[in-house]
Structure formats: structure tokens, C-alpha cells
Design a protein that fits this description.
mainly alpha
């Protein structure tokens, strides 16, 4: 790739390719939001106010393929809804530059782009299974040892504080820079062919999970995968990755907000329920 290429793409652009990619990804995101709205088993607000594992257990029931499959469907569709708008710069860069090195650029764009996104979502699908099994183990442990159930009441606050601390870690910065610099990513992870497209999607998904796993944990453990909280998190992710592109002040501001909310929820356990009701 030419060294004169800008490592980032403008958020607002009249370029037809950028507009086309944005239209497709936003359309898929909107459709995914529709599926989430109609299919997600929404948790009652009282469940969230009562805390922790009591609400999560309603989403995680058993190790049966049907239960895991339903959760995975909701999870992956939710990830597409939340993350695809922030993928506009990386997918535009892939279509503009990476496909030019292919023997059949049209095939690379028509088939390679969906494969790139499929690889990306595959990583989040793996994260979803890990989350499901971890919560299932925690629920079973709290049932076997009733005294552990009390941990569920402090878990949301602890998760918020953990997420805030991770925002300030060097690992977070490393992963985020790979997400906001398409040229830097493809320089390190360029592969040819359709298999290469899927492989690059996997690699980008790994960076994205490394950057955003704490947000996903907040969504699941704190927000119980509720639609309003998902919308808030998707806006935060889009600002961080696509609009302000890793601005330090935003990262620190998000960290402070998460920690303050976490501490507040530990001191006043009902604050998350009130916040949820407000949303």
C-alpha cells in the first residue's frame, strides 16, 4: 500500500464508496436493532434493581444447544447492531485499497467483504459463548452455595469499576489504536484471497474484543442486555472509534464515568434501577 494513504478516513465524506459502505453497514445495523427489539427477552426493571445474577439467570438457563443457540443469536445480532456503524472506516479502507491487490477485485469486494465481517462477528460469537458459560457456572455456584448469591448484588458495581480501570490501561490503548487506524491494521494483517478476508476479519475482531470487552461485560452484567443501554454503549463506541478516534480526554472521561457510577451503585444499590427506569 502506498505510504501517502491517510491512516484514517474522514467521518463525513462525499466519496461514493464511503457513502455506499456506510449505507450498507448502517442498514444492517438498523435491521439488527429491529431484530433485537422484537426478539430479545427484555428483563423487567425490578429485576435489574434487585441486582446481579437474579436477572442474568433469566438469560442463561442450561447447556442445551437450543438455549445456547438462542443466546448466541441474540448476542451476535446485538453485536452487529452495536458495532457495525463503527466499522465504516475499516470496511471502506478494505474495499478501497486491500481489494486492489486481489486478482479479482470485484469478487473480493462482493464476497470478501461479507467474509471479513463474518470473521469479525465470529470472534464476538466466541466471546458470547465464553460469557454464557461463565455466567452459567456463577449461577450454579450461587445455587449450590447460597451465601455466594450476595455477591450478585455487588457484581454490577464491581464490573463498572473494572471497566473504568481498563479504559486507562495500556492494553486498551493498544487495541483501540488498531481499531481507529485502518492502514496500520492492514499493513500488519494483510492476506490475499477469500480465506484471507475471513482471516483479516478474525484479526480485527480480536482487536475489537480487546478494545471493547469491558463494554460488553457492562452491557451484560449491569444492563442485562437492555435495549436503551445497548444504544448508549453503541453511541459511546462510535464516538470512541469513528468520530473522536481514541481521544485521550474521551477515554478518561468514560473511565471516570464508569468508576463513579460503579462506586455509587455500591453505596446506593438502587441507583442502577433508577437509571434504567430513566432510560
Amino acid at each position: 500500500m502506498a505510504s501517502t494513504v491517510s491512516p484514517t478516513l474522514p467521518v463525513l465524506s462525499r466519496d461514493r464508496l464511503t457513502i455506499g459502505v456506510a449505507a450498507v453497514l448502517v442498514s444492517v445495523s438498523i435491521a439488527s436493532w429491529g431484530v433485537v427489539f422484537y426478539e430479545m427477552p427484555m428483563m423487567p426493571m425490578m429485576t435489574m434493581a434487585s441486582g446481579g445474577m437474579m436477572g442474568v439467570a433469566a438469560l442463561v438457563s442450561s447447556t442445551s444447544p437450543s438455549a445456547i443457540g438462542l443466546f448466541e443469536l441474540i448476542w451476535v445480532v446485538g453485536m452487529a447492531a452495536m458495532m457495525f456503524p463503527a466499522m465504516i472506516p475499516i470496511v471502506t479502507f478494505y474495499n478501497r485499497f486491500s481489494t486492489k491487490v486481489e486478482s479479482n477485485p470485484r469478487l473480493a469486494k462482493a464476497v470478501g467483504t461479507p467474509l471479513f465481517l463474518a470473521g469479525y462477528l465470529a470472534v464476538y460469537a466466541g466471546l458470547g459463548i465464553a460469557v454464557y458459560l461463565a455466567v452459567l457456572l456463577a449461577v450454579d455456584a450461587s445455587s449450590a452455595v447460597p451465601s455466594l448469591a450476595s455477591v450478585g448484588y455487588v457484581a454490577p458495581g464491581a464490573v463498572l469499576i473494572l471497566a473504568g480501570a481498563y479504559q486507562l490501561s495500556p492494553r486498551k490503548s493498544t487495541f483501540l489504536m488498531q481499531c481507529v487506524s485502518p492502514m496500520g491494521f492492514f499493513t500488519q494483517h494483510s492476506h490475499r484471497g477469500l480465506v484471507g478476508s475471513f482471516t483479516m476479519g478474525l484479526a480485527h475482531g480480536e482487536y475489537c474484543v480487546g478494545c471493547c470487552w469491558a463494554y460488553m461485560l457492562v452491557m451484560f452484567a449491569v444492563a442485562l442486555m437492555s435495549l436503551p443501554f445497548m444504544v448508549v454503549l453503541s453511541v459511546v463506541i462510535a464516538l470512541e472509534k469513528m468520530v473522536l478516534r481514541g481521544a485521550v480526554w474521551l477515554t478518561r472521561g468514560i473511565a471516570a464515568g464508569l468508576v463513579i457510577l460503579g462506586v455509587a451503585s455500591l453505596i446506593f444499590p438502587g441507583v442502577l434501577g433508577l437509571l434504567s427506569a430513566g432510560l
